[in-house]
Amino acid sequence: MMGPQVDPVPSDPALPARADVVIVGGGIIGTSAALYLSQRGVSVVLCEKGHIAGEQSSRNWGWVRKARRDPREIPLVVESLRLWEGLNQAVGAETGFRRTGIVFAAETEAEVARGEAWIELARPYQIEARMVAGAELDRLMPGARWKAALYCPTDGRAEPQKAAPAIAAAARRAGATILTGCAVRGLDRAGGKVAAVVTERGRIACDAVVVAAGAWSRRFLRDVGLTLPQLKVRASVLRTAPIEGAPETALWCGDAAFRKRLDGGYTIANGHVNVVPVVPDSVRFFADYLPALRMGWSDLRLRLDGRFLQEWREAAPVPLDQVSPYEEVRVLDPAPDRRYLAAALASLARQFPAFVGARVLQEWAGLIDVMPDAVPVISPVDAVPGLVVATGFSGHGFGIGPGAGRLVADLVTGAPPLVDPRDFRFSRFSDGSRPRPIAGF
Question: pTM of whole model > 0.85?
Answer without folding.
Answer: yes
